[in-house]
Design a protein that fits this description.
The complex is a heterodimer of chains A (about 375) and B (about 350). Chain A is mainly α and about 375 residues long. Chain A is about 70% helix and about 0% strand. Chain A has a domain of about 240 residues. In chain A, strand 1 and strand 2 form a beta hairpin. Chain A has a two-stranded antiparallel ribbon. In chain B, strand 2 and strand 3 form a beta hairpin. The chains are: A mainly alpha (about 375), B mainly alpha (about 350). Chains A and B meet through helix 7, helix 13 and helix 15 of A and helix 5, helix 11 and helix 13 of B.
Chain lengths: ~375, ~350
């Protein structure tokens, strides 16, 4: 009976979410902040889940997420910048003839290919990142915990240096970055408005990650996390599973990076520096290391708090004539870092610990509070 | 209690900001800035002997500062098996402390204040962020270290703003010497010498004193050292104190050459110095020094050759290659993994 009820609840909330998004899409002008927070939140949810797959489920402490995101973002951006804006974007150094030729080819292709091309671009970005991860993984995954962390952090810095170097000016536009990137495309011939696209792409990706985690591969990942030597003794091929986790995680980070490029409309190598990885780590830690739903919830919470709810910390605040001290630019981030420290030191499990979201738990919590209140009365 | 004290020291700069407004120096061109040499072009190796020596001198000076920071990483890692991600930010904070101390005190007093405050901050961070997690999994401690680094960066962005602040010039350090065709400011010559002297003192401390013996014991085996009656907390505090003190010295030497401090100017040097520590064999003090000098010199030469965008990437490439070929570093002991 419970499982039936849970399915029903899941379906209802799913339908409600879609209806809400359609409503939002119709009234997007009045709710600009909500739209941008939700879109950014969903993109960060994908990165956080992919980081969690690596850190929480496989026990590989990797800090290379920003690097793989930048690979995805740059690939997607270079592929989808429209051919007529090329000269405006690469106004300093000119564009590489190969890229221009490729874009001409796409512009001449049938309308159907053009409409799905942004998704192909996302996929190509993901595949490129996955390929790089597979090659680099051979070397890097031999390292243990903290060495792996610093090596992957270094890796993302190397990627950033390559993207911002003047030697690849005609492709990556060096330190000027890329702009005039088109926004999210529509799906299914306009049936699904562009606002919903990131939600659908991320939904599909997270569903895939969930399937992977619940498969026998996922159980092997968890075994490796708990005890590498025991896992090896049980016949799990350590390198194969570690590199699979690394490649899958990089693939989805890159897709999220591509979505971020479409969301931000302009990117530069600086966007993907070390603090971005720390931001994602903050989301994962607050959500609970080893919980997919925790990462998703905390991605939305952290993004909303950072971009919207806590904005007032950065503005001077007055009560009558008295100005509240401490409130000025940067205070929001201080609050955030203190929050992170509190979570790390006191609530080490984060929001969800290593549990997943379940209706039973949620309803049980309501019931328990109801009961205790009843008892008190 | 201690965390309260450390909090006080974090807040102290705010008070300083209120009282002493430091005027922002426009960035001047250094006597030997690298930009002059970009005319050599890519990979062109036609530098004269003098130019090469000149760059080596700059590199050695940079390497000396790196070596001092790397020692902090190597000591902490040797004892707690923790990459102290906040070390680079302690180094950055020391830069700010110096700016504010020098605004109101003569330079000898200012240097002493900077070093003392930095040391106390290092100990405070350990008590506040690492000690509660002593028995937690290593990943938690590392996340805590990243959290402290994030906190220090955001706090200093908030307090000092992200605009680069001019580093005060000590006239004694900036005086220019000429040796034949080479010319160098006093700080360039002082850095490696001071580094070597400090390392020798540190080696004597570690090898000859009782505290040093305890430190070596703790780094060999944490649990057994505890059983032998060594006060672990005290040893860890001493380690952090030494590391932060050296980072403070390194910061004065480094920023005198760099002219300005921003809240993020500690991140990259911090990571590079960790690489230096790994390169020399983590836990090994002379190794960290050699690694620091090596990275400093190679980086300077890369910049001189025109590959400045890749000079940071090189460091990490070096790390990955080193870890693959000889994970224990140049002078590291072979560490058998215990099951």
């Amino acid at each position: 009976m419970n499982s039936k009820r849970n399915t029903l609840l899941t379906t209802i909330s799913f339908v409600l979410a879609i209806v809400f998004l359609y409503w939002l899409s119709a009234n997007r002008l009045q709710h600009g902040m909500l739209v941008s927070v939700l879109q950014k939140g969903v993109i960060f949810a994908l990165v956080a889940v992919s980081m969690n797959l690596l850190n929480g489920f496989t026990g590989l402490f990797s800090l290379g997420q920003a690097g793989f995101m930048s690979i995805g973002a740059y690939t997607t951006a270079i592929l989808i910048i429209p051919v007529k804006s090329l000269d405006g974007v690469y106004y300093m150094n000119g564009v590489h003839p190969f890229i221009r030729a490729m874009k001409m080819l796409i512009a001449d292709s049938p309308a159907f290919i053009q409409s799905v091309f942004p998704f192909i671009a996302l996929l190509l970005g993901g595949l490129l990142a996955a390929g790089i991860a597979a090659i680099v993984g051979v070397a890097v995954l031999r390292l243990k915990s903290d060495y792996l962390a610093i090596a992957t952090l270094g890796l993302s810095e190397i990627v950033r240096a390559i993207f911002s170097s003047p030697n690849f000016d005609q492709i990556t536009n060096g330190s000027y970055g890329l702009n005039k990137i088109p926004n999210f495309p529509e799906m299914a011939w306009g049936l699904i408005p562009s606002l919903l696209t990131p939600f659908i792409v991320v939904g599909v990706c997270i569903a895939f990650i969930l399937l992977l985690i619940n498969s026998s591969y996922g159980r092997a990942f968890k075994a490796i996390r708990e005890d590498e030597i025991a896992a090896e003794a049980m016949g799990i091929n350590l390198f194969k599973h570690k590199s699979m986790s690394f490649v899958v995680s990089s693939f989805f980070s890159a897709i999220a990076g591509g979505l971020l490029a479409m969301y931000m409309r302009s990117i530069e190598a600086k966007t993907f520096s070390i603090p971005l990885t720390y931001d994602i780590l903050l989301i994962v830690v607050i959500g609970g290391i080893g919980s997919v739903s925790g990462s998703i919830i905390s991605a939305f919470l952290v993004t909303a708090a950072k971009e919207w709810w806590l904005r007032f910390f950065d503005q001077p605040l007055f009560f009558g004539d008295w100005q509240v001290p401490l409130f000025r630019t940067g205070f929001r981030m201080v609050i955030f870092s203190i929050l992170l420290m509190v979570v790390v030191l006191v609530y080490r499990k984060g929001l969800m610990g290593s549990n997943e979201f379940s209706w039973d738990r949620l309803l049980g919590r309501f019931k328990r509070t109801g009961k205790s209140e009843g008892g008190r009365a | 209690m201690v965390s309260l004290v450390s909090f006080f020291f974090l807040i102290a700069p705010v008070v300083c900001t209120c009282y002493y407004h430091v005027t922002f120096n426009p960035i001047e061109i250094e006597p030997f800035s690298f930009t002059e040499n970009t005319t050599f072009g890519y990979g062109e190796l036609l530098m004269s002997m003098t130019t090469i020596l000149q760059h080596c001198l700059t590199g050695i000076s940079l390497g000396g500062a790196y070596a001092l920071i790397a020692i902090g990483y190597t000591l902490v890692y040797g004892i707690l098996r923790l990459i102290n991600f906040a070390h680079g930010d302690i180094f950055m904070m020391a830069g700010y402390f110096m700016i504010f101390a020098l605004a109101s005190f003569p330079w000898p007093v200012a240097i002493i204040i900077t070093l003392v405050v930095t040391t106390v901050m290092g100990i405070g961070i350990e008590k506040f962020a690492y000690k509660p997690l002593r028995n937690a999994p290593r990943m938690s401690i590392m996340i805590s270290a990243i959290g402290v680094s994030y906190l220090l960066q955001n706090l200093s962005t908030y307090i000092f703003t992200a605009i680069p602040r001019g580093y005060p010039e000590l006239p004694y350090l900036k005086r220019i010497f000429r040796i034949g065709e080479l010319s160098a400011s006093f700080v360039t010559i002082l850095t490696p010498i001071l580094t070597i002297i400090l390392v020798i003192i540190l080696m004597i401390l570690v090898n000859k004193t009782k505290t040093g013996m305890a430190m070596r014991a703790v780094s060999k085996d944490f649990e057994t050292a505890k059983l032998m009656g060594i006060n672990i907390d005290r040893i860890v505090s001493v380690t952090f104190a030494i590391g932060s003190l050296l980072a403070g010295v390194g910061s004065i030497l480094y920023f005198t050459d760099r002219m300005s401090v921003t809240p993020f100017s500690g991140t990259l040097p911090g990571l590079k110095c960790f690489v230096a520590a790994v390169f020399g064999g983590i836990g090994n003090i002379p190794g960290a020094v050699v690694g620091g000098f090596f990275i400093g010199i190679v980086e300077t030469l890369l910049i001189a050759l025109g590959y400045s965008t890749f000079s940071d990437a090189f460091t990490f490439l070096l790390l990955i290659i080193m870890l693959l070929i000889k994970p224990t570093g140049l002078f590291g002991e072979k560490n058998v993994e215990k099951v």
